[in-house]
Amino acid sequence: MKLFDLEVVIKVDQVALPEFGIQYDETKKQAMCWIPSEAGKVGLKSPMSSATSSDLESDFLSSSKPFAISCQALRPHAFAITTAMSVDGTRITGIIIKPSSCRRHTRNAAITSATTSRALLFSTVQLSDDESLGATHRKLGDIVVDLYQAKMGKRKEYSKAYRKEYVNNDKVSEKSKKAVSHKVAFGEELPCEKNYKRTMVRISKLATFTFKYRSIDVLKADGIAPPDPKPQLQTPKGKRKANDSEVLEIEDSTDDEDSAMYKGLVPNEFWTNGAFLNSQEALEAIKEKRAKKKARKAASNPAASKKIKKEQAALLQPGAIEPSTLLA
């Protein structure tokens, strides 16, 4: 989505997800849309990682799909921009856009320490009858990015003791589901490049982007995303069905006499501009004339008649005509 001169998108496999039902409120500096989430089959374990997970946690993560939050200033600014990000109501580390920068910045993981992080994932929801989970998931299905004009402070290293824990709870109260079949999860903790932090003094809010993610099936069912196009039925090759009112073209004959005889046999009400309408009587007349013509040619040229193959009688059904059975 774009609001003013700022853009924020959600990416999966490095491609921005389509956005549906976009709404803007420039007075409140807000933009909202719906995006299709997907829980795929993605292996998240790394041979470099020494972290271990239970079988339940491993299965939970294997049915998840990584995504990223991407932000960009569409024109240079004289000031810095800082972001506050939340997924399902859980705050994660934002990004900083430096003054005059139009470079795209992406957040695809939650920082857990100076040298580790956990990937952001779309994962599958499991329902529970525990009503106490409802308060935890009031913002389930929302990814929110706030952008602020800010003053930059000095960059600092994270202390070795710094730890940020993110808990995966795939269970959601039945009452708080809100037609949500997916949720945001955090991948296995993996090593990453060294992380730094910077003190940012917020001056004013520039914009708020809210992405409501749902499965594409839910978005289609609610009329938010367009339905799948209906497949077009195709007639099998060589089997052309003719309607009662359909006009079939007769190939021009090199024999003028033959063409005149055909036209003379077909009643006028079945003949229009070199084509005949679908009529059993007209077809029988043509068939009879064709047989007489073959017999006449065979009588006048006995040697040639030996080369003519015997044809099986074609069963002509009203509404199903094979032109190849009518003309030699």
Number of strands: 22
Task: Give the overall pLDDT as a whole number.
Answer: 75
Helix percentage range:
10-25%
Total number of helices:
5
Tell me which oligomeric state these chains represent.
Answer: single chain
Distance between the termini: 65 Å
The unreliable regions are 41-57, 244-263, 311-328
Task: Describe this structure in a few short sentences.
The protein is α+β, with helices and mostly antiparallel strands.
What does this structure look like?
The chain has 328 residues and is an alpha+beta fold. 21% of the residues are buried. Strands 4, 5, 8, 9, 10, 15 and 19 form a 7-stranded mixed sheet that branches. Strands 1, 2, 3, 7 and 11 form a 5-stranded antiparallel sheet that branches. Strands 6, 12, 13, 17 and 18 form a 5-stranded antiparallel sheet that branches. The protein has helices at residues 55-62, 216-221, 256-265, 280-300, 302-305; strands at residues 2-3, 6-12, 15-16, 20-25, 30-37, 65-66, 68-73, 80-87, 90-92, 96-97, 105-107, 109-111, 116-124, 126-128, 142-157, 171-173, 182-186, 190-191, 196-215, 247-249, 271-272, 275-277. A hairpin with a 4-residue loop joins strand 12 and strand 13.
